[in-house]
Design goal:
The protein has two domains: 130 residues, Rossmann fold (3-Layer(aba) Sandwich), CATH 3.40.50; 92 residues, no CATH class. It is globular. It has eight helices and ten strands. Helix content is 36%, strand content 28%. The longest helix is centred in the C-terminal third of the chain and has 17 residues. By secondary structure, it is an alpha/beta fold.
Length: 249
Amino acid sequence: MAYIEFNNVCVDFPIYNANGRSLKKRLLQVATGGQLGADQNGHVVVRALEGLSFSLKDGDRLGLLGHNGAGKTTLLRLLSRVYVPSAGTAHIQGEIGSLIAISLGIDPEATGRENIFLRGGLLGLSKAEITQRLDEIIEFSELGDFVNMPVRTYSTGMHLRLAFAVSTILRPEILLMDEWLSVGDEGFKHKAEERMQELVQSTHILVIASHSKELILRTCNRAIWLEHGKIRMDSDAVTVCNAYFGEQP
């Protein structure tokens, strides 16, 4: 069973050589949406997330709302264990899959085929597992003979199709997304949409950050509105979306 439980979680980032620079402090506060303070040693810190308490269980589909700098991406990185809490406790049970930065690990000098193994390895797949699904990935990407060419020769669309085909073969218990993925031309977008729907339906817990009211209402049964690193509202998706976006007449 997958679950996520946060209790009064905070995330602080130290800012070095910032003491005495009032303008820099102000710019950092505006840019990050965080709160400037100082740790026990007097070092300047930005508090990106403060006092987050919530829990998710099997079947939850959570949408994250908030302005740029509100803490959505920081929370996703915390959930994916890229960051650890500076204070509070975060308990996460279940295999995690992330569709954030799907091109991470792609080497432009390596071939498409080689990059499938590189990207698959970063996703936690063994060489045997990748080999078993290699033909499926290549077929889905529609790269044809280009799969044996260096990725630097690819168009942007080809690059994204390769990254998407590899990144969506996993079926994790907890799926993290920063906006909905849509890649390729119209024909490939239809395939990509079907793959995304299948992936979301198979996962136990979904957490997706988005600026789209339609997407949150279509995909999620719950939403959290973040503001300056704090939870302003946590309720069902309809209630939070109406409060954040404003109710439609």
